[in-house]
Design a protein that fits this description.
Blueprint: H1 13-22, H2 26-35, H3 50-58, E1 62-63, E2 68-69, E3 79-89, E4 92-103, E5 106-110, E6 120-121, H4 124-127, E7 131-136
Antiparallel strand pairs: 1-7, 2-7, 3-4, 3-7, 4-5, 5-6
Helix pairs in contact: 1-2, 1-3
């Protein structure tokens, strides 16, 4: 299949997800992000959708305007950013970015977390997405 990008920083899931969508390495995507004043250490990368939208938009990738509430895995578009592990800290929303893909009818999630035994996931019941952003034109 292909080798998913694994985040190289604890808070680098947004950068790694963009890399997984764009077919870049973590280091390539991090250099692009840093040049745009987007840094993995900035908690806004995983508490605000504008940063990953900017990264993808910079590469000419169109995203849905709004976040769409998750209803079911079968209702997802063929390519989407998913917000999983949603939680709040001091009243602020945070999440972990992952990429949902459907290729030739087979669905899977690219999860960049370095602690996983496999970064290609099909354990859908374990992930519990909150919402998604559709990725278009890739």
């Amino acid at each position: 299949m292909f080798k998913p990008v694994v985040q190289e920083e604890v808070s680098g899931c947004g950068i790694a997800s963009a890399a997984n969508i764009l077919g870049k390495t973590y280091q390539e995507m991090k250099a692009i992000a840093n040049a745009m004043d987007i840094y993995a250490e900035d908690e806004l990368l995983w508490s605000d959708t504008r940063y990953v939208r900017r990264l993808l938009g910079h590469a000419g990738v169109e995203t849905s305007v709004d976040e769409t509430p998750f209803e079911s895995w079968s209702a997802l578009p063929d390519l989407a950013l998913l917000a999983i592990k949603h939680h709040q800290e001091n009243g602020k929303d945070f999440w972990h970015w992952v990429v949902f893909k459907r290729l030739e009818g087979k669905a899977f999630v690219l999860d960049s977390a370095s602690y996983l035994p496999s970064n290609i996931r099909t354990d859908f019941d374990e992930m519990q997405p909150r919402w998604f952003i559709e990725i278009k034109g890739v």
